[in-house]
Design a protein that fits this description.
Layout (H helix, E strand, L loop, with lengths): L6 H27 L4 H6 L2 H14 L6 H32 L3 H32 L5 H43 L1 H4 L10
Helix pairs in contact: 1-4, 3-4, 3-6, 4-5, 4-6, 5-6
């Protein structure tokens, strides 16, 4: 019996792979931040990166291949890191200094701007030779570089503006939910086993 694997099956497989990666990221971030809301804020940066990667592939007439998919998965990690740098700093400012979500994310944007730009430029410039197709077999790896460079360029422009907006919106949603459900918002009592 011969099993046929069509292009449509391949597209569905890639879509499921990207969704599985996003769900895995959400679960890990949910455990890290002990929240259902803040992982969504971080994941809100991924669509702009995906659009940038697809636009770069279309602009340079490259197919969405397995190599390009690897570039998109790599891009998800790089872009997610930028949002984590901002949100982690903002949450820390809220908890330790008692700042409002708006003030905390504003301070996070100002202080974390340079590290975000430095890591993004390092990843972008490191992927540039791959996207140009230099070296032996460079044409085979070119979609990976194009996906990373295109996704980073667009997401960097959008993320610096979008992440603070989504953060403050999610914080206001969380505050409304806590007002409606005060019993669920109370912290659990901490138990000490010392004498």
């Amino acid at each position: 019996m011969k099993v046929r694997f069509t292009f449509s099956d391949f597209c569905w497989l890639m879509l499921w792979l990207i969704l599985a990666a996003a769900v895995a990221i959400y679960i890990v971030l949910g455990v890290l931040y002990e929240s259902f809301i803040h992982p969504l804020t971080i994941l809100s940066t991924l669509p702009s990166a995906g659009v940038g990667a697809l636009l770069a592939l279309m602009l340079f007439k490259q197919d969405l291949s397995i190599v390009a998919l690897i570039g998109i998965v790599l891009l998800m990690g790089i872009v997610k890191k930028n949002a984590i740098m901002m949100i982690d700093f903002a949450l820390e400012a809220e908890r330790r200094e008692g700042k409002s979500p708006h003030d905390a994310i504003l301070e996070a944007c100002l202080i974390r701007f340079r590290p975000i730009m430095m890591t993004t430029m390092a990843a972008l410039l490191g992927s540039l030779p791959i996207s140009l197709g230099y070296g032996s077999g460079g044409e085979a790896r070119r979609p990976l570089g194009l996906a990373v460079v295109g996704g980073l360029m667009l997401s960097q422009l959008v993320t610096l503006y979008l992440t603070p907006v989504v953060y403050t919106f999610m914080a206001s949603l969380l505050e409304r939910w806590r007002r409606r459900h005060p019993a669920a918002a109370e912290p659990e009592p901490s138990y000490s086993f010392s004498d």
